[in-house]
């Protein structure tokens, strides 16, 4: 029986509640029969009475309560219904949670689950990939699992980090991405990127739902052109594993960074900047980035597909990169 991405998150939440009495869940409609907008917490309120709590419809209040609880010794896991609305708690996240340790020496052990990214019909208010926005603040970790195993292990690792963690869960992966199991013998630590596919002709750096698209593009390119493309899954954008990125570029000489976020000031721009600053001598061609269009995200499924990078557009960009 296969395990989905959302199954792995549900299992991690169950085990965290079971293993540590300081852990509790707080968010909009996460208790009772509803179990959250995406059912990640379904059944947990009954199993752990008083520790899965419905919040007001106020992201600012959700994060503020979580900060207070963390300072009191608890380990809150907060759920934003959509990462887009997480921006309403941005002041609490960046100015309070992220900066608190630097001001006082007191850690804020807080995990914010953020359903992010686009799905067909989601439109501009429920589809944004805002990893770079949250990563901009010092003191915040931003994790971006792209596999079923990472959805499970990285959520459990996030709660063990004494700092505030923004855990970006891609909605498209929730039920589409499946694996035989969410358990593996040697999970990577937070902050370490993964070579998802070794290669020699170009490096494609991706994270979140762009990793499966990059892997599909690599299969397509090998089948049609004979190109062997190395795909690097960042796994987290802050901390960012620059060493693994540079080692990959050293093997291939070419770099394409793929992100579902808007292009201006995004994660892709940060990766390109770091490679240009620290590994320019490794490149045989200019580094490229491929992001979503710099427009609000469209509702229509066909327009949505055209708006974000796909395996076909990634393959086209790689062909151009190799031609340079």
How would you briefly describe this protein structure?
By secondary structure, this protein is an alpha/beta fold. 41% of the residues lie in helices and 17% in strands.
Question: What can you tell me about this protein's structure?
Answer:
By secondary structure, this protein is α/β, with parallel strands linked by helices. It has 13 helices and 14 strands. The chain has helices spanning about 5-20, 45, 60-70, 85, 90-105, 130-135, 150-160, 175, 210-225, 240-250, 265-280, 300-305, 310-324, and strands spanning about 5, 25, 50-55, 75-80, 110-115, 140-145, 165-170, 180, 195, 200-205, 230-235, 235-240, 255-260, 290. Helix 9 (about 210-225) links the parallel strand 10 and strand 11 (about 230-235). Helix 1 packs parallel to helix 7.
Order of helices and strands: EHEHEHEHHEHEHEHEEEHEEHEHEHH
Q: Largest beta sheet: what is the strand line-up?
A: 3-2-4-5-7-6-12
Q: Supply the helix-strand structural class.
A: alpha/beta
Q: What quaternary form is this?
A: single chain
Poorly predicted sequence stretches spanning 5 or more consecutive residues: none
The rough form would be described as globular
Q: What does the average pLDDT come to?
A: 97
Q: Indicate the percent of residues in helices.
A: 40-55%
**Overall strand count:** 14
């Amino acid at each position: 029986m296969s395990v989905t991405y959302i199954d792995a998150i549900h299992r991690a939440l169950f085990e965290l509640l079971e293993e540590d009495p300081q852990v509790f869940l707080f968010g909009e409609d996460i208790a009772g029969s509803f179990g959250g907008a995406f059912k990640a917490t379904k059944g947990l309120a009954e199993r752990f009475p008083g520790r899965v709590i419905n919040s007001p419809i106020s992201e600012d209040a959700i994060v503020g309560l979580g900060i207070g609880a963390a300072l009191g010794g608890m380990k809150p896991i907060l759920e934003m219904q959509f990462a887009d609305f997480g921006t309403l708690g941005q002041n609490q996240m960046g100015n309070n949670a992220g900066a608190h340790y630097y001001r006082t020496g007191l850690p804020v052990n807080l995990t914010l689950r953020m359903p992010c990214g686009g799905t067909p019909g989601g439109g501009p208010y429920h589809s944004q990939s805002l990893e770079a926005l949250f990563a901009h603040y010092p003191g915040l970790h931003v994790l971006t699992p792209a596999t079923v195993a990472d959805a499970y292990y990285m959520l459990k690792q996030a709660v063990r980090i004494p700092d505030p963690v923004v855990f970006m869960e891609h909605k498209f992966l929730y039920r589409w991405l499946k694996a035989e199991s969410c358990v593996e013998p040697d999970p990577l630590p937070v902050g370490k990127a993964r070579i998802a596919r070794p290669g020699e002709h170009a490096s494609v750096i991706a994270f979140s739902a762009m990793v499966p698209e990059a892997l599909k593009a690599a299969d397509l390119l090998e089948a049609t052109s004979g190109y062997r493309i190395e795909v690097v899954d960042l796994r987290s954008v802050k901390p960012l594993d620059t060493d693994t990125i540079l080692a990959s570029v050293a093997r291939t000489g070419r770099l394409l960074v793929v992100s579902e976020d808007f292009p201006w000031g995004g994660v892709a721009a940060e990766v390109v900047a770091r490679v240009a600053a620290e590994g320019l001598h490794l490149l045989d061609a200019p580094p490229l980035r491929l992001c979503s269009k710099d427009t609000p995200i469209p509702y229509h499924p066909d327009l949505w597909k055209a708006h974000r990078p796909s395996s076909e557009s990634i393959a086209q960009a790689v062909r151009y990169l190799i031609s340079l």
